[in-house]
């Protein structure tokens, strides 16, 4: 549930310290080519706390520069990263946006976004890595954006999320497995609310595809136990052409297959945590061919087997 990783010992060689830092960045954020501007100042330190499958990390960084290229983005399952700076500044530059992240703001960014990161001076920040599978059961509006920056002074949910993470941090060591699962789900509800709130409620002609996409995803979630889900089924249920179904998912950078997979994995994860049903029964219930099929898909998403995940996070 909780890990603490302290600063590397002073007598450890620089390259070994660099290896530990880069491994932590890869495991708890994403693949980044990151280098300190001044090698003599080292790579900093981090402290890791897991809220179930949500990886919360506090970082202390020296002046640094880095990049996240398309080849790196393709190396892992897509996740949503939440950034909060506590002291200092971090510049995030993508093809569409450049943001100077300071205290008092929350940045939500997909790991598929490519670009550059500049830390112009000493920095402390908190990050949370959220698998997209974890968000699948929640209403995020028209999907998960590539890049969203929210000022906590102007956005009540962003401010509440910041305060909530501070509260979870203070209590995590005393939480039972049931408490951690509740904290995880509450944080996901807050993140989904921030994503959903970036759009107004009115649906115009130009909003049709994102609106349809939301309805399609709701239908998928409601029919997971009924066998294979086909494009034709979705099209018929919503009185649209199959090509319109594809366009609705493509409008948010997704495919129907990826969304179905995410919901099936989210449902299987929920059963692993909350029930004592066998892995084979869970696989059958949520549309996987067998326990081996579920195991392969689960390890790809969560980096551990269903059995190991249940042992670590199960509360039944």
UniProtKB/TrEMBL annotation:
**Which InterPro entries would you find in this protein's record?**
AraC-bd_2, AraC_XylS_family_regulators, Homeodomain-like_sf, HTH_AraC, HTH_AraC-typ_CS
| Organism domain of life | Bacteria
Organism source for this protein? Nocardioides vastitatis
> Record's PROSITE patterns?
HTH_ARAC_FAMILY_1 (PS00041), HTH_ARAC_FAMILY_2 (PS01124)
Entry protein name: AraC family transcriptional regulator
HTH araC/xylS-type domain spans which residues?
Answer: 214-312
Q: Provide the alphabetized UniProt keywords.
A: DNA-binding, Transcription, Transcription regulation
For this protein, the record's SMART domains field holds: HTH_ARAC
């Amino acid at each position: 549930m909780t890990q603490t990783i302290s600063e590397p010992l002073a007598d450890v060689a620089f390259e070994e310290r660099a290896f530990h830092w880069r491994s932590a960045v890869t495991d708890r954020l994403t693949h980044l080519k990151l280098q300190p501007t001044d090698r003599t100042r080292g790579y900093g330190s981090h402290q890791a706390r897991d809220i179930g499958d949500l990886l919360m990390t506090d970082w202390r960084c020296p002046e640094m520069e880095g990049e996240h290229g398309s080849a790196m983005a393709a190396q892992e399952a897509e996740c949503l990263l939440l950034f909060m700076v506590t002291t200092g500044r971090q510049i995030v530059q993508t093809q569409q946006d450049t943001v100077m992240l300071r205290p008092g703001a929350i940045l939500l960014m997909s790991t598929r976004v490519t670009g550059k990161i500049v830390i112009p001076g000493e920095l402390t920040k908190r990050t949370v890595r959220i698998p997209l599978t974890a968000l699948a059961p929640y209403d995020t509006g028209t999907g998960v954006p590539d890049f969203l920056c929210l000022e906590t002074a102007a956005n009540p949910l962003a401010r509440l999320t910041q305060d909530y993470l501070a509260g979870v941090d203070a209590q995590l060591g005393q939480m039972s497995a049931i408490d951690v699962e509740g904290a995880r789900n509450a944080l996901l509800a807050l993140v989904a609310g921030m994503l959903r709130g970036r759009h107004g409620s009115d649906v115009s002609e130009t909003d049709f595809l994102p609106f349809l996409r939301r309805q399609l995803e709701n239908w998928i979630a409601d029919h997971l136990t009924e066998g294979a889900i086909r494009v034709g089924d979705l099209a018929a249920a919503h009185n649209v052409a199959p090509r319109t179904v594809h366009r609705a998912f493509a409008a948010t950078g997704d495919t129907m297959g990826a969304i179905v997979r995410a919901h099936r994995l989210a449902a299987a994860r929920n059963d692993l945590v909350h029930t004592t049903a066998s892995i084979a029964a869970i696989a059958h219930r949520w549309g996987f061919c067998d326990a081996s099929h579920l195991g392969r898909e689960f390890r790809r998403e969560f980096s551990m087997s269903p059995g190991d995940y249940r042992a670590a996070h199960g509360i039944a």
